[in-house]
Amino acid sequence: MKLTYATRRSALALAQCRAFVARLKLAHPDLELVEEQVVTTGDKIQDRPLSEVGGKGLFVKEIEEALLSNRADIAVHSIKDVPGVLPDGLLIACIPAREDARDVLVCPRFGSLEGLPKGAKVGTSSLRRMVNLHAARPDLSILPMRGNVDTRLRKLEEGEFDAIVLARAGLVRLGLENRATAILPPEISLPAVGQGALGIECRADDAKTRALLAALHDEPTSRCVAAERGVLIALEGDCKTPIAAYGERVVSGDSVSLHLRAFVSDPDGKNVRRAEETVPWPASDEAAQDFGLRIGRSLRA
Ligand SMILES: NCc1[nH]cc(CCC(=O)O)c1CC(=O)O
């Protein structure tokens, strides 16, 4: 059987989709895998913060069009880039085991957040990261910075910034995790919905492909991400709303539970509302999403 996978052309997109399809090939050695590269709106607009461009799913729209028109059969996304509600006819059929969900600081000169001098320039265009940084270090100067991971590392090296904040998962997948100089724990930088996890999207009516993908699905990751995406859906988040949500599986003795932390704030980063709750491990992704929806609604109220 032949399977075509759609991917963006950034170094991270290529690295993570090729690593995923290599695992898929190990699980199903007879599969013939074909790569279809797609340029998305998010890739084309590199000069403005996405929060200004507006709209949802700027890194996935053209890829979803390739799936719906049968030019591709699967898409490997960073699930953090995928809006809460998918187009009719598509679904996330597989969520593989999560990579590290945490943010990191890349700061060759000063190392850690505490080590940064007053007024140091930190580059990020993520509203969520701005809220996190501002809460921990209101004295820092946070400046917009866009571009792929490689572009951002280059801008840091060129001296425009003293530090940048990135997802550890992206660096790991690029083999660049040694660039991180400090890990920012969730207490300092609550991760984005789905950060560190992939989501493999396909046509809902493509039963063959769904069955192939099932081999690489990770239920614990899927439950946590479903809860986080519940928060996203309840808040109808677009790129203009700072939202964070992080679910974790917690085992204590015989009991397994899901611990969810989330925040939302106004677009300007003011009025941050936080929520945190632990429930018994949900029996299904739907139950996990309902939990996230409830937390999200409590934040909206
Ligand atoms: N915003 C772009 C993006 N989308 C996914 C990742 C990293 C990988 C992941 O979170 O799974 C990144 C880069 C970053 O935030 O540093």
From TrEMBL:
Name all Porphobilinogen deaminase C-terminal domain ranges.
223-299
Q: Which cofactor does it need?
A: dipyrromethane
Q: Which GO terms describe its biological process?
A: protoporphyrinogen IX biosynthetic process
> What protein name does the entry list?
Porphobilinogen deaminase
Q: Which domain of life is it from?
A: Bacteria
Cofactor binding summary note: Binds 1 dipyrromethane group covalently.
Record family assignment: Belongs to the HMBS family.
User: Where is each Porphobilinogen deaminase N-terminal domain found?
Assistant: 6-210
Query: Which key words tag this protein in UniProt?
Result: Porphyrin biosynthesis, Transferase
EC no.? 2.5.1.61
Other remarks on this protein = The porphobilinogen subunits are added to the dipyrromethane group.
Q: Which gene encodes it?
A: hemC
User: Which GO CC annotations does the UniProt entry carry?
Assistant: cytoplasm
Q: How does it assemble?
A: Monomer.
User: What GO MF annotations does this protein's record show?
Assistant: hydroxymethylbilane synthase activity
Q: Which reaction does it catalyse?
A: 4 porphobilinogen + H2O = hydroxymethylbilane + 4 NH4(+)
Q: What does this protein do?
A: Tetrapolymerization of the monopyrrole PBG into the hydroxymethylbilane pre-uroporphyrinogen in several discrete steps.
InterPro entries from the entry? HemC, Porphobilin_deaminase_cofac_BS, Porphobilin_deaminase_N, Porphobilinogen_deaminase_C, Porphobilinogen_deaminase_C_sf
| Pathway this chain belongs to | Porphyrin-containing compound metabolism; protoporphyrin-IX biosynthesis; coproporphyrinogen-III from 5-aminolevulinate: step 2/4
Question: Lineage of the native species?
Answer: Bacteria, Pseudomonadati, Myxococcota, Polyangia, Polyangiales
* Annotated coiled-coil segments of the chain: none
Residues recorded as bearing S-(dipyrrolylmethanemethyl)cysteine in the entry: C239
